[in-house]
Amino acid sequence: MQVQQGTVHIEQHGIDGFPVNHGIRFCIAATRQYTTAHHGVQSQESPLSKPKVLHSREVARTRLFRVEEMGLRFSNGVERTYERLVGFNTGHAAVMVLPLLDDQRFVMIEEYAAGTEDYQLSLPKGLVEPGESLLEGANRELMEEAGYGAHKLELLTELSLSPNYMSHRMQVVVARDLYEMRLEGDEPEPLGVHVFHFDQLPELVQRPDFTEARAMVALYMARDLLRSPQGDVQSTI
Amino acid sequence: MQVQQGTVHIEQHGIDGFPVNHGIRFCIAATRQYTTAHHGVQSQESPLSKPKVLHSREVARTRLFRVEEMGLRFSNGVERTYERLVGFNTGHAAVMVLPLLDDQRFVMIEEYAAGTEDYQLSLPKGLVEPGESLLEGANRELMEEAGYGAHKLELLTELSLSPNYMSHRMQVVVARDLYEMRLEGDEPEPLGVHVFHFDQLPELVQRPDFTEARAMVALYMARDLLRSPQGDVQSTI
């Protein structure tokens, strides 16, 4: 569904720097691909020569899931057959949104999770639709699931689900300068919307109805950035 | 493979309390199911009446994956058909291990990830084998993948993968009082073993070869517990 109201300010991250902007900037994801130094204090030899793909074939396909079998030969000559989930969820980019009301409070949604068969807290998320940019898709999901739009959307990080078994990756976006705005989505029932304070994070991650690792990472990462000494300096600019 | 050396001290967590022990205790998981209070600062009505399962059937099964289709009727009468991944990885309990060398340093492994097709940093993990307890399985995986055994193993938390689409859950165990001990596992090549300091966590989560959300949560959660004021008090007992 198209955005009907509100101006979206999308941060453009370049290689050389980040736009001048008030408040904390979330720029981890933009630096990811340029971070190559290894910081291990102590290392053994790393097996960095990638195995050769001997064959790959689809072994199952359903409406949402596709399973691939892959024959690999490792650099030491050992051959193994792997199965992995590919193209989970139709192949569109997946995005998760962390909506910040201010530097202390964030919004979570509560919805029925068919996988774990209970109501779970999470962050708004979904698939970017054809013709949408990543941040436009993030803003639409935010409006559909939480009833907020955001004037500022910034990429925080990219997370994998289970890198050994799944190709799936999810982009995590921080949304700020929120305004009330609800779009009708494809949810079967209205989602619960809850506001928490970052001070509640240690209790929150203990709750039986909050178990999703990717949403937890988004919260820990944003909290650390907001509370880092560097962040404090930036926020006073 | 059986443990050949070293004494495993397994913490028994009860409902009423935790064993007296030196150092920080990781006891989040044990309190999870008893935490029911909601801490939302602001809440809308929560949709807590679970949908009714109208039907469910298996739509695909491979060596590792099983996909189920489920018809649901929500409390407002809306009906939807869902697909979810169930019994991922043969249904054995999955366990991830965070090995601590001390209160500052932890061990990570580096292995080829067939899902993302690159070498990735992660924590030792695997499936608990028949006849093993969760913590025994955690110790065996630690020996096979990282070359350490642990005298102390404690449950940290339980994480889900993608609760909307997958039933999969993983237990996260903290391993301490480590000793060198390698068991032969089923890895096709030796894994890289790296030691990091919790001060490196902000850089670590930016690395393109560390993307797994569940391992990140384990690190953030343990670091917060080790550095919490309460932790400082406990560690001086």
TrEMBL record, chains A, B:
Residues 90-218 form the Nudix hydrolase domain. One of its GO terms (molecular function) is ADP-sugar diphosphatase activity. Its cofactor is Mg(2+). GO terms for cellular component: cytosol. Keywords: Hydrolase. GO terms for biological process: nucleoside phosphate metabolic process; ribose phosphate metabolic process. It comes from the Bacteria. Signal peptide: none annotated. The keyword Cell membrane does not apply. InterPro entries: NUDIX_hydrolase-like_dom_sf, NUDIX_hydrolase_CS, NUDIX_hydrolase_dom. This is ADP compounds hydrolase NudE. The keyword Cell inner membrane does not apply.
